[in-house]
Amino acid sequence: MSHTSFLTRSPIPSHSQYTSLTTATTNTTTTTTTTRSPGTTSPGFPSSWPRQSALFGSTSSPSTRRRPTATDEALRSSLGYFAFLPQSDPKPPLPPPAPNTGSKAATDTAERLGSTRPPETPQGCSESDRQEHGTSAHTARLEREQAEATQGEFDWVRSGGILRDARGRRDKVRTEAIHAEIRRRDEEDGIMRTWNSYEERWRRLSRPGTGTDQHMAIQFRDIPWPQGSAADRELGVGPVGTVEDLDVESMQRFFLATLRVRTNRMTRKELVRAAWLRWHPDKLVSVLARVVPEDVSMVQEGISLVMGGSPYIPPCFGYSFFSSARALERWHESVNIEHEREQIGLD
Question: Where is the composition biased (Pro residues) (predicted)?
Fold first, then answer.
């Protein structure tokens, strides 16, 4: 279908009609002179060309406008119309962005980029719920930013850097405080690594085996004795190889060390029960059955020493582990300290 088929066009004159029309126009034209009146053709153009006013209408003022003649009307009726096709947009509009699908990949990318856009509020919530939701999201973002800033300071001080205040001066007080906190964290990490290793050795020892593992022989050094903390290594206390290597004070430090960890959630009563259930001779029958014959007596003696040496064991188990009055006094001091910790809510 043609783009101009919807336009109404006048019939185009044939060659014979155009020739006769041109001849009639030529006969009515006077000789061209140097002086032109309004409405005549410009000099240098053939007189047979139709006037501009006949094609597009006159643009002169009403006083100088010429009355159209029969020839002009004939020309006007024989001409067609200009048709301009609508221009298409060279740059079509972009499609709308796809809705957020809430995928895990998009969420992870937003978190890595540090997006501060709060999470969307669930539909159907009241205004108070929306305000509370926005406040909680803002608080969580501030806490996350504060934790990241604090961790950055710790990393900087640990690498040997010095903190500065808002004016750019060295902040020795804050730097030293972070140094002390780093030392305490390192101490707590060492305590927990020793305790977790102790617990893992007990899990492997108590785990029921299959086949030959079930009847594997156990020696004295295979027992996870409560000794070997970081403080013991600093004091030169070596690994336990015989019953003579078991040190009562070292066992006390081992059990008391976990209460110095701020992230510890076990109370003193829970530790007493766990130690009692683990080291009671009736609970270790299966373990003693796997001990090699030459180490059975040493293992039994070590178990008795642990049961008397743990400060969490009730007094009915006896205080035979105290070698002197000073050792008994130190034990009472440690118990009083832990009692005060419980009173102020640290446990």
Answer: 89-99
Measured CA to CA, the distance from residue 38 to residue 180 in angstroms comes to: 105
- Amino acid at site 284: L
Would you call 153 exposed, middle or buried from its count of C-beta atoms within 10 A (0-12, 13-18, 19+)? middle
Please give the angle made by the CA atoms of 14, 19 and 24, to the nearest 5 degrees. Answer: 125
Tokens of 222: 């295979």
Q: How far is CA 333 from CA 213, 226, 239, 269, 327, in A?
A: 45, 21, 27, 18, 10
pLDDT for position 173:
92
Structure tokens at 289: 């059955």
Token pair belonging to 180:
């002390």
Residue 169's pLDDT is what?
Answer: 92
CB atoms within 10 A of CB 184: 13
Q: What's the chain's length in residues?
A: 347
Residue among 248, 249, 268 nearest 258 (CA): 268
Q: What does the pLDDT average to over 191-214?
A: 76
Distance CA 56, CA 309 (A): 119
13, 73, 79, 99, 271 from 82: Cα distances, Å = 16, 18, 10, 47, 100
Sorting pLDDT into bands at 50, 70 and 90, what band is 212? very low
How far is residue 306's CA from residue 275's CA, in Å, rounded to a whole number?
9
Two structure tokens written together for 98? 């796809």
Task: Provide the whole-model pTM.
Answer: 0.49
Cα–Cα distance list, 315 to 39, 156, 272, 279, 312 (Å): 133, 49, 12, 16, 9
Helix/strand/coil for 218: strand
- The Cα 229–Cα 236 span in angstroms is 11
Q: Which residue has the tokens 């205004």?
A: 127
Residue 185's pLDDT is what?
92
- Listed residue (205, 225, 202) closest to 310, CA to CA: 225
Mean pLDDT for the stretch of residues 187-215? 78
